[in-house]
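Board notes (copied after class):
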Amino acid sequence: MEKIIDIIDSIAHEKGLPPESAKEAFKTAVIQTAKRVICEECDYEVEIDEKSRSYRLFQKITVVPTGDPSLVDEPEKYISLEEAKQIDPDVVVGDELTSEIKLEDYGRSAAASLFREIEYHIQRFVEEQMFNKYKAMIGTIVSGPVTRVDNEQNTYIEIEEVRAVLPKRNRIKGESFRVGETVKGILRYVGIDKKFGIHLEISRTMPKFLEELLRQEVPEIADGLVVIEKSARIPGERAKVALTATSPRVDPVGATVGVRGVRINAVSNELHGENIDCIEYSPIPEIFVARSMSPAIISSVKIEDDKAIVTLPSDQKSKAIGKSGINIRLASMLTGYQIELQEIPSTATCTTEEGEKETEKSVNPDALKALFGE
């Protein structure tokens, strides 16, 4: 086992592990091997000698009174006070002595067991390091080539050294992917499966995916000049994003949309043609609700607890509701209020009705008969 620490350092370099982590894995492997080969209930400790590049294994033995039953039941773990004083005259009951053990003395099976344990624990450290790496990436965009699409339309994507899955439920309606095609998504979940190792799940339907795409596409958002306050999506159909600027010189909506819509169109194309409405956020609920109902023109908004009563001209109602109710649903999701619409007659309608009533009042039927000679 001489120079085994050099081997551990080489493994650490190959696996991209910190040397100290690899050495801790090695210590754990040695202790587990000793428990398996020598005594499962015993306590051990491992010391690494950096100069000789080797290790030493010690077994801890507890001092008990002479004649204690544990000396018969578990002789590997205990030593009598009488025997212990021959080693150290100052020892007392309850002290722990250490005895050096060499795994080489237990044959080839011990050596084979040690190397299996080393491989196992190094792999666990590698997985733990990778798990922490990807866990820190939750909520960010990842991308990679498609490696497989199963019968249930779950899409498997290679993200660096790990395989991720894009479940059908996390895919925008109408999308389909082919093997070799590069796919983007938001990292939603990271877990460790006993059978398959690290498991990543990505999504293309979360509002966070839209926000991260905007952050990549719009420099003002990436630099913090424009802040995404809230967002709401019906994936693949329509989305609303509430924006605010940290500088009075920046137009949050204009910066996000870009010249001739180039920025917002790039994001829309990634989202399978999803229409994206950008509105300026307001901390005043009435104003925020009115803006969220765009493109409808709102007359007034009244907030009652978790309900927003929106008054609008009758000719704006269809715009406020949107196709299949999509506009009002998104506005409700964005603002957090249950929205109730109240119509008011339009100006043109009022004028016509009033004119008809006035005509009925001012025209005399007898005068008409006289006029036409009847």
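Comment from the instructor: Residues 291-374 form a domain with the GMP Synthetase; Chain A, domain 3 fold (CATH 3.30.300.20). The mean pLDDT is 86.
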